[in-house]
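Entry:
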Amino acid sequence: MAFQPTPADISVIITSPSAKASSAEPGFVTERRVTPSWTVFQLKGKLETMTGVPPGSQRLRVKVPGRPEQWADGDDRIIGEWGLGKGSEIEVHDTRPRAMRPNFTDLSSVEKYELPSETYESLPNSVLAWKKNQKLGRFDPNALSPEEALRSHVEKDRAEVASRGIALSQRAIILPSSPPHLRRGTIRFVGPVPTIPVSGPGRELEQDGQLPAELQPIWVGIELDEPTGKNDGSVGGQRYFECLDKRGAFVKPEKIEVGDFPPLDDDLDELMEEI
């Protein structure tokens, strides 16, 4: 009897259509070696571990370079009959109705384990334990309380406003700025902005979503010369000054430099006169 060589495995790209009808990109892509002597059913059994689609619900579309695309129908047929070669692709289609397919990307119904606080606090090798040993954060005996920290920030803001000469109608730039990217404008507001959320320690002191007036940080509202801002002088539905949309910005006092910064239109006029 003549010797029959075993067909060599072929590297084939395995894909599946995207779950989103609007997407042209495949939802799954991998590359696997396929033995041409496998039956279609044998191949489907191996593809189940990659795609999660049961063999009975699979329909395979074979794409071979230089040939028309074909459906690999007939579970008992040999997959090599479709002329698999270099660069071939097998697209796995799920014939089940969408409602019958498990959604492995939706984690909303997955039960999640949450470590109880008392258990975490008792662990000897946690970040919390390290902070305790190093006396960092709230474990620092010299650390300020949240209220003291907020008062300190407010005092710093007021000192910056005074030392920098920040006042209404003054011309200013927002730091950091360097030519030609100077964000300049006119100061239109100086004071607390309760509708800007507070980050860091002290949030637990909020009442009805706001800090007490004496603990609210100071902000500087600027009407910018160019539309490089984020608002129109209002934040969170509360208006603090009037300006066009995208011309308003709120920054901390330490980010402000007051000076003789003429409006951009004036610079353009001077340049045209020189020309």
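The CA atoms of residues 109 and 268 lie 61 Å apart.
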